[in-house]
Amino acid sequence: MTRVQANLVLLLAGAIWGMGFVAQATAMETMGPLLFVGSRFLVATLCVIPFAVREARKAPATLTTSQWLAFAWVGLMLFSTITAQQFGLLTTSVTNSGFLTGLYVVMTPILGIVLFRQFPHVVVWPAALCTLCGIFLLSGGTLAGLTTGDWLTILAAFFAALQGLFIARSAAQTGRPITLAVTQFAVCAVLGLTAAFVFEPVSLDALRGAAVEVLYAGMFSGAVAFTLMAIGLRYTTALQAAIFLSSEAVFAALFGAIFLGERLPSAGFAGCALILISMLAVEIVPALRARRAARLSP
Fold first, then answer.
1. CA 212 – CA 226 distance, rounded (Å)
2. Which of 28, 110, 183, 274 is deepest in the core (most CB within 10 A)?
3. Domain of residue 27, residue span
4. Is 141 within a domain?
């Protein structure tokens, strides 16, 4: 898979997540956040296990204990991301949540430098800031006083940045993106359901009431989108991936207009344009510079 194809895969993942935002919000009308997280990732695990088994049979070598632990660590980061975001939605507005979740676009290159000394291509910095401005405009161009839910969403963005960095390292080193995906799903399912039985009321009525949301979030936002993310990050950088995955905000606005009758203000269209420009910049500028360097080299 080429880097261009990988970035398109990540763009598709962003589209699926944009569609799934409604499911995340409406599911909590009938069930608690932890039960939703655990049940959706149980569905995701069951969906992806057959493909992980097939991948394992074709793998040239078995995974080591340290590699399994790295996969589990990624799962913990995913659980932290989704849980913080889910609880944040209880006490923050959709506007604030959409903008604050997008902070991972800026956090990813910063954490890459701090943790792994990964210095991005110079175009990533203006692209990340441009994306952040685009998400801000897309969310309405306003941000009310920060609530507990806002801070939880900022924490979710932090864990999302960490998850992307560690997925990129693990997927590239092992060549087992589907196994990585199903491992992180299983970790989320076990932690979410265990915590739900301890801290929340659990009933069949709650599961039946949010069955459609759980199935969509598990099969598509979970199994399909996160697996696409793991596959795409094997062939591109976490920094470029953060830009392309931020398209989630654009697709959320698009699907909101199609299915919910919502309409973007002029600032929202400007935000979409900024995000699109950012995605094109991180894809085109490095390619042009590499081509120019190749022509000038003896």
1. 19
2. 183
3. 3-293
4. yes
